[in-house]
Each structure stands twice: as C-alpha cells, then as structure tokens.
Amino acid sequence: MALKTKGQKIKVASWLILNSQYTGQNIRLGITASRKVGPSVLRNRLKRWTKEFFRKKLKENHEIQCDINVVFLPRRPNEYDELQFEEFNQFLEKAYLRIRNNS
User: What is the pTM of this model?
Assistant: First the structure.
C-alpha cells in the first residue's frame, strides 16, 4: 500500500501502470493482473513477459534499487491478444528508463 501512496506512478500506456519507490535495496517486483484483464492464460503470459524483462535487466548488470509494481489494466475483449512480445518490451523499456532517471 505504501508503494501506491508514496511511490512514483508512471502511466506507460492506456493498459500499463508502474508504481515505483526507491529503497536502496535490491529490486522487489510485484505484478498485478486482475481477472478483468482476461483469462488466466493471458494473465500468466503477461506476468512471464514482465519477469523476463526484469531478469534480462539484472543480467545486464543494471542495478535496480527500488520496489516496482506493474499493474495491467482491463481492456476491451481480445485487445491484449494483439500485443506482441517486442511491443510489450518497448513499453516496459520506456517505463524502466523513467524509473532509472528519477531514482
């Protein structure tokens, strides 16, 4: 709850919000995808893609010293189905750069 109230809110796209707060410790990642986002297969795919993005950043020796919560917002039916992995990574990269510049 403190992350949502005291942290920085970054709206990357109409379907993606990142809440972040600098902690000075290693990254803690939270992912929120309610049932309204879509079926479990879709929600799990979005979670896998998010984890993979941050895993790659940590392998590239990017120090991430903050708490991050990735929130997926409900969209029209089948709209997430059109989302490709590369496009998804571009949105997260944009948000990641804003987090690094502000911390």
Answer: 0.88
Over the stretch 46-98, which tens digit does the pLDDT of each residue have?
Answer: 999 999 999 998 888 777 788 999 999 998 877 788 889 999 999 999 998 88
Domain hosting residue 47, numbered range = 2-102
Report, in this order, helix, strand and coil percent for the chain, each rounded to 5. 50, 25, 25
Whichever domain contains 27, its CATH number is 3.30.230.10
Total number of domains in the chain: 1
Q: Which residues contact 101 (CB under 8 A, 6 or more apart)?
A: none
- CA dihedral defined by 76, 80, 81, 85, rounded to 10 degrees? 170
- The residue length of the chain stands at 103
